[in-house]
Amino acid sequence: MTNEHAGNVRYGIDLGLPVVEENVFRNVVGHFASGVTVITTADGDDLFGTTVSAVSSLSSDPPMMLICLNRSSVTHDAVARSGRYAINILSAAQGDLARTFARKGDDKFAGVGHMISARGLPLLAGALASIECVVDETAVGGTHTIFLGRVVAAEAQDGEPLAYYRGTFGNLESALETAAYEGTREWVLHRRTPLGETIDVSAVASSLRLEQKLVDHALLRLATESLVEKRDGGHYLPTAMTPALVDKLYGDRLTIATGVIERYLTSASDEHLDRIRRLSDQVLAAIPTSAETLEQFLELNLDYHAAIVDLAGSRKLTASFRALNVTTVWRETYEAGDWERQLGPTFVPRLTAALEQRDVSAAQRIACEQVEFVKEGAKAVIAAHGGAV
């Protein structure tokens, strides 16, 4: 039997139907907006948790919930051993928490507010609701195990739920807007519209499967960030990455970071600095050695610097900082040697040490040194590509 048909056998009958490609499947399923949960459990003294959207109520008599966990997950194994789990339904303000538990890591609970329930399960502080279950049955589906749990405790509070739509966390309206912004931004920075050509709004909207007005709003925002240029008649062109634009974008990022350090570092909690330390360790462990490992490194590096800005406790400020990130352009142009040189001196551990010591002047100085180093490398790449990228 071919692999193509192997996935279409049911009850010993070969249905003979083609299998949908994984990238197509992910794209289509991503159009289903869902809530976001963190599944937690305890196995002895160890706590486990992972972000999951595949959660559903199963019955009301008796009250039961089902969750689907990938069998490669350590949380899956802990639930299988302990026979219990808690469903933490996240609020709209807990997008960062969803990202934290979505990553692989040894101690996701460090610095995360939580309590241990009377039934011995970790419940996350600030969650919109929590549902505690004991496993009654399990089933296997593809790469996942389906845990059917009998509900033994449940509670909820008022608030707005966190939504997940096409890889974006937020409330449903903002998730649509964010999906349009991030998708349009990727279109621009990947140069799917070449420099010098007008961006076809209908083509972008069709590719993203979103309304054109959402793409229009995204382009307006990108214009304020200097990533596109608005022309007469409502047309937009991608902005070429030049030394002047590098100075502006990285200068704006530095202004935010050093301002936050000056205002908030001395009052930073130990828990937040521990979080920055953990991200620092992850960045150093993810130094890219190939094109395949570059994406994870870039994401972790951005998360590390965004965590510093998070000291201000402003989601909007952190979002603005993230929006100034343009590594997509460099990813499209850098060769392996460029990236090796761009990693440069050990700025991250030095910056982390200064932050942990709450040394404001040292942290600001190192942040400035790092930005100047990055700008120098970026300008060298621009020069190698004729003065604009």
Biggest pleated-sheet summary: 7 strands, antiparallel
What is the tally of beta strands? 16
Structural class: alpha+beta
Q: Please estimate the helix content.
A: 40-55%
Strand order of the largest sheet: 5-4-8-11-12-7-6
Strand content: 15-25%
CATH superfamily of the largest domain: GntR ligand-binding domain-like
**Rg over alpha carbons:** 23 Å
Strand-helix topology:
Layout: H1 3-6, E1 9-10, E2 13-14, H2 22-29, E3 34-35, E4 37-43, E5 46-52, E6 55-60, E7 63-70, H3 74-82, E8 84-89, H4 95-102, E9 114-116, E10 122-124, E11 129-141, E12 144-156, E13 163-165, E14 168-170, H5 172-189, H6 201-208, H7 212-224, E15 228-231, E16 235-238, H8 243-264, H9 270-285, H10 291-309, H11 315-323, H12 327-333, H13 336-343, H14 347-356, H15 360-384
Antiparallel strand pairs: 1-2, 3-13, 4-5, 4-8, 6-7, 7-12, 8-11, 9-10, 11-12, 13-14, 15-16
Organism: Microbacterium lushaniae
Domain Flavin reductase like: 29-171
Family: Belongs to the non-flavoprotein flavin reductase family.
Explained architecture:
By secondary structure, this protein is an alpha+beta fold. The chain contains 15 helices and 16 strands.
